[in-house]
Amino acid sequence: EKKPYPICCLGAGYVGVPTMAVICEKNPDIKATVFDVDEKRIAAWKSENLPFYEPDLEDIIKAKRDKSLFFSTDAEKSINEADLIYICVGTPTKTTGIGAGMGTNLTYIESTARMIAKYSKTNKIIVEKSTVPVQTSSYLEKVLKANAQPNVTFEILSNPEFMAEGSAIRDLRKPDRVVIGGKDTESAQKAIEILKKIYCWVDDKQIVTTNLFSSELIKLTANAFLAQRVSSINAIAEVAEVTGANVHEIARGIGLDSRIGPKFLGAGIGFGGSCFQKDLFNLIYLCEWFNLKEVVAYWKQVVIMNDHQRKRFVMKILNKMFNNITSKKISVLGFAFKKDTSDTRESPAIYISDYLIKEGAHLSIYDPKATKETILRDLQALTPNVNLEKQVTVVSNAQDSIKESHAILILTDWDEFKELNLAETYKIMEKPAYIFDGRNVIDQKEARKIGFETYSVGTPLIYNSD
Ligand code: NAD
Ligand code: UDX
C-alpha cells in the first residue's frame, strides 16, 4: 500500500480546518494534521462540540477525523512528519505601536516560521495561505533560512484563500480559481506542481500561477474590490433614499450589465467580518509605507463609507423614534456578520448595538448561531466600564426578543427572519411599532399595511417618510 502524503496545517481556524477537511475529502492518499497553539481549540475539534458553525463542515470532520485528518498540539511531531506545511494563522490588524489600527500584526506568522525551522529535519514546502502584506514571503524565507538545521531547505509558495464564511465548504469544493505564487526557479516550479496535485479536483484552467508578490497582492486586491462594491452600492443607497429611487432596483439594473455583474451589490448596514476591513487596512498601510498618497486616500474612502453606513442606520432609528430610546426595549435580530455563520468578528451589529446602548436603550438580542458569551464579549470590549447586564439580554428565540419591544432591528440576513409572521409580530409589540431593516429582509409594503413604521436601507422616501 502507498504511504499517504503527509501534510500539516498550522492554525486550526476558519481557514485552516475547512481547507484541510476538503483536501482530505478529495485526496484519499493525503494525511493532514492540523496543529494549533490553542489547546482548547484543538480539544474542541476533537470533541462533539466544534469551535464554530460552518455548514457541512461537521459532516466531513466526522467522516475523516482520526482516519486521514488529525488534530494535534504537538508542534514538533506535526511539523517534522510533514512534507508540505500550510501556514493558516491569524494576521490581525496591529493594536499597539507604530501602525496601530492599520498595519498587520505578523507575530503569529513569524512564530510559525521559527517553529518550522526549529523542528524540520527534512526539506519542506511551505505554503503561505494566511493573508499577508506583500513581500511577507521573502521575510518568511529569511527567518526560515537563518534558523534552518544544517542541510534542510524550504521552498516557499503563496497560496491565498478566497473562501467566504458560511459557504466555506461549497467555495473550497468549487473554487472560482486557485492562485499559486512561486519563484521562477526549478525547485519552486517543482513545488508548484506538487501543490497543484493537491488541488486535483480543480480544473487546470482555474489554477493561476504567478510570482510570489503578485499572489500576495491578488488576495488584498480581491478583498479590496469586493469591499469597494459594497461601499459603492451603499453610497448609492443614500442617494436613492433622498431622491425616491430604490437601490435594489438600481442593483438589478446595473447588475445585468455583464461588465458589472450581479453579485456583491446588496446595500445594507455595511460589510463586517474578519477580512474586509483588515485587508483594506493592510493594503492602505502598505501604500502609506511606499508613500502612495492618492492610492491611500482612494482605498480609505471604502472604509469611511462603511463606518458612515452604520452610523446613518442608527441616525435613522433615532430620527424616527423621536430621538428617545432611553429605557425602551429594542429587539436586535441577528448578530453574526452574515448569515450561516456563528462568527461575529467586526460585525456591524456590534457597532450599531454599541451606539444604542450609549443612548440608553435596552437591547434584547437574538442570533440563531452566535453564542451569548461571544455577543456579550464583543459589546463589553467597546464599553469596558459599563455594566451591560442592565441593558443587554441575549435570548434564544426571535419571539422573546420581539415581545413588548418598541422596535425590531434586522442586522443579519438569516433566512428565518424572512419568515417572520409580521401580523403576529405586530400584535406583541409596543405601539408605534417600528422595523428597521438593515439587510433588505422584510417585505416593507406588507409591514406598512399591517401598521408598522418601517425603514429599509436604500428604499424610496415614500416608504421611509410618514
Ligand atoms: P483564526 O483566528 O480563526 O485562526 C487562526 C489560528 O491560528 C488560531 O486558532 C490561533 O490559535 C492559531 N495560531 C496562532 N499562532 C500559531 C502558531 N504559531 N502555530 C499554530 N497555530 C497558531 O483565523 P482565520 O479566520 O482562520 O484566518 C487565518 C488567515 O486566513 C488570516 O490571515 C486571514 O486573513 C486569512 N483568511 C481568512 C478568511 C476567513 O474567511 N476567515 C478567508 C480567507 C483568508
Ligand atoms: C470575504 C471574501 O468574500 C472572501 O473571498 C475572502 O476569502 C474572505 O473575506 P467573508 O468575509 O467570509 O468573505 O464574507 P462575505 O460574503 O464576503 O461578506 C462580507 C461582508 O460583506 C458581510 O458582512 C456581508 O453581509 C457584507 N455584504 C456582502 C454586503 O453588505 N453586501 C453584499 O452584497 C455582499
From TrEMBL:
<feature type="binding site">
    <location>
        <begin position="89"/>
        <end position="93"/>
    </location>
    <ligand>
        <name>NAD(+)</name>
    </ligand>
</feature>
<dbReference type="InterPro" id="IPR014027">
    <property type="entry name" value="UDP-Glc/GDP-Man_DH_C"/>
</dbReference>
<dbReference type="Pfam" id="PF03720">
    <property type="entry name" value="UDPG_MGDP_dh_C"/>
</dbReference>
<feature type="binding site">
    <location>
        <position position="165"/>
    </location>
    <ligand>
        <name>NAD(+)</name>
    </ligand>
</feature>
<feature type="binding site">
    <location>
        <begin position="130"/>
        <end position="131"/>
    </location>
    <ligand>
        <name>NAD(+)</name>
    </ligand>
</feature>
<dbReference type="InterPro" id="IPR017476">
    <property type="entry name" value="UDP-Glc/GDP-Man"/>
</dbReference>
<dbReference type="InterPro" id="IPR001732">
    <property type="entry name" value="UDP-Glc/GDP-Man_DH_N"/>
</dbReference>
<protein>
    <recommendedName>
        <fullName>UDP-glucose 6-dehydrogenase</fullName>
        <ecNumber>1.1.1.22</ecNumber>
    </recommendedName>
</protein>
<feature type="binding site">
    <location>
        <begin position="11"/>
        <end position="16"/>
    </location>
    <ligand>
        <name>NAD(+)</name>
    </ligand>
</feature>
<comment type="similarity">
    <text>Belongs to the UDP-glucose/GDP-mannose dehydrogenase family.</text>
</comment>
<dbReference type="InterPro" id="IPR036220">
    <property type="entry name" value="UDP-Glc/GDP-Man_DH_C_sf"/>
</dbReference>
<dbReference type="InterPro" id="IPR028356">
    <property type="entry name" value="UDPglc_DH_euk"/>
</dbReference>
<dbReference type="InterPro" id="IPR014026">
    <property type="entry name" value="UDP-Glc/GDP-Man_DH_dimer"/>
</dbReference>
<dbReference type="GO" id="GO:0006024">
    <property type="term" value="P:glycosaminoglycan biosynthetic process"/>
</dbReference>
<keyword id="KW-0520">NAD</keyword>
<comment type="pathway">
    <text>Nucleotide-sugar biosynthesis; UDP-alpha-D-glucuronate biosynthesis; UDP-alpha-D-glucuronate from UDP-alpha-D-glucose: step 1/1.</text>
</comment>
<dbReference type="GO" id="GO:0003979">
    <property type="term" value="F:UDP-glucose 6-dehydrogenase activity"/>
</dbReference>
<feature type="domain" description="UDP-glucose/GDP-mannose dehydrogenase C-terminal">
    <location>
        <begin position="331"/>
        <end position="444"/>
    </location>
</feature>
<dbReference type="InterPro" id="IPR036291">
    <property type="entry name" value="NAD(P)-bd_dom_sf"/>
</dbReference>
<dbReference type="Pfam" id="PF03721">
    <property type="entry name" value="UDPG_MGDP_dh_N"/>
</dbReference>
<keyword id="KW-0560">Oxidoreductase</keyword>
<feature type="binding site">
    <location>
        <position position="345"/>
    </location>
    <ligand>
        <name>NAD(+)</name>
    </ligand>
</feature>
<dbReference type="GO" id="GO:0005634">
    <property type="term" value="C:nucleus"/>
</dbReference>
<dbReference type="GO" id="GO:0051287">
    <property type="term" value="F:NAD binding"/>
</dbReference>
<feature type="binding site">
    <location>
        <position position="36"/>
    </location>
    <ligand>
        <name>NAD(+)</name>
    </ligand>
</feature>
<feature type="binding site">
    <location>
        <begin position="275"/>
        <end position="278"/>
    </location>
    <ligand>
        <name>NAD(+)</name>
    </ligand>
</feature>
<dbReference type="Pfam" id="PF00984">
    <property type="entry name" value="UDPG_MGDP_dh"/>
</dbReference>
<dbReference type="InterPro" id="IPR008927">
    <property type="entry name" value="6-PGluconate_DH-like_C_sf"/>
</dbReference>
<feature type="active site" description="Nucleophile">
    <location>
        <position position="275"/>
    </location>
</feature>
<feature type="binding site">
    <location>
        <position position="41"/>
    </location>
    <ligand>
        <name>NAD(+)</name>
    </ligand>
</feature>
